[in-house]
Design brief:
Blueprint (H helix, E strand, L loop, with lengths): L6 H4 L13 E8 L3 H13 L5 E4 L15 E3 L5 H6 L4 H24 L11 E4 L3 H16 L8 E3 L1 H7 L8 E4 L2 E3 L2 H14 L3 E3 L5 E3 L2 E4 L2 E10 L16 E10 L4 H7 L6 E4 L5 E5 L5 E5 L18 H14 L8 E11 L6 E5 L2 E5 L5 H17 L23 H21 L5 H8 L5
Parallel strand pairs: 1-2, 1-11, 2-8, 4-13, 11-18
Antiparallel strand pairs: 3-7, 4-6, 5-6, 9-10, 10-11, 12-15, 12-16, 14-15, 17-18
Helix pairs in contact: 2-7, 2-10, 4-10
Length: about 450
Amino acid sequence: MTVGVSYWMDRLDRPIRPGLSGDTDFDVCIIGAGYTGLWSAYYLALADPGLRVAVIDSHFVGFGASGRNGGWASAKVAGLDRMLADPKTRDGAARTYRQMISTLDEFERVLQSEAIDCDWARGGTIVTATRPAHVARLKASLELKHSAGFSDHDGLWLEPVEARRRLNTSRNHGASYTPHCAALDPARLVLGLAAAVERRGVRIFEGTPGVPVAGGVETPGGRIRADRVVLATEAYGVRLPGRRRRAIPVYSLMVVTEPLPEAAWEEIGLAQRETFSDGRHMIIYGQRTADGRIAFGGRGAPYHYGSRIEPGFDRNAATFEFLRMTLADLFPALGGVRYEGEWGGPLAIPRDWRPSISAEGSLVAVGNYVGQGVATANLMGRTVSDLITGADSDLLSLPWVGHRARRWEPEPLRWVGVNLGRRLTESIDHSEEGGRRARIRQAILDRLPVG
């Protein structure tokens, strides 16, 4: 049993895989045994069963965000609204969103064909306007998608009475709803996916940190000679030489309740296991688990100087208390509920808040999902496979292929800027909670490369 990663991982038994011992040869070496690395390996093995593929991880399968996230397989990608609003990027953003919508079908197909039981429930996402100021923002997001050719089938506005039928929050001024999201158990998914790639001959080495070098990857246990190397380390990639400013690690934390009685669910809703959020700037996210709990998370933990990643940062008492108070505020039925887990971990945010695939010689670097990676990793994995095998693929024309954001500023500018931005979003939310508008602060936030 894994201890101390997340509620999802800590309750499951997992196979212990040995680390690399001795020099060896593979055609492709993938660094990172999370969703991106495993989906890349899966589709490479399907495309060319003779391809020798290795996946290595400093810790173990699912140690990072893939074993800790909120369990949303969403068609939304980071930066979508901002790209749809810009005429220069609108077409590429729309093509990407259509591919992401179809990705949910592909995701479902693989789960069925590989018999991966991860409590998949395609109930969509409801985002409630819990403050009057949220209404205009949520409607503007829907209008952007409609102006790009998407319909009410892809996203629509629910008036308060209809919204409450799906999710009965304490304050409700309406909600946006999209069917393009599924709730799942992230740990069951990543462990099931690892077993599926091993059945196809992929080798997984745990406890094997690796650094890309000319001709392959250097590890403490030996050198892996490989023609192509895939870097799928997400936030942990900032630890590698020359990559500290390619992204910043920002912490997202979660709590999970005990199983709730049916009477509580009758009051709360989520009958289709919809994932849920609200219209505030400081992101919160939740789902109804298959066994009747609420798994609930949010941002707000501080960014740590020098892009540091430490085990102690996975837990922040103030953020956990904020999450519990927010849930109690949203759902009065949760008064006195017991919590049975709390955890966290870093996610990768590039300077322009857009995911990317970049080829740097024999190295393919992929990720930077800004917390929207569960479904995106599947599409990215297919794209990595097409890129390496030379397939004639529409996926290679998506705007994130070849995209590289500029580097984050050096310290202390990075620490000051990121934490000031966090404070700015908190202050806007606080004003809106009190019924006040924050026009100047909102105008400043709208000009920042976030979203």
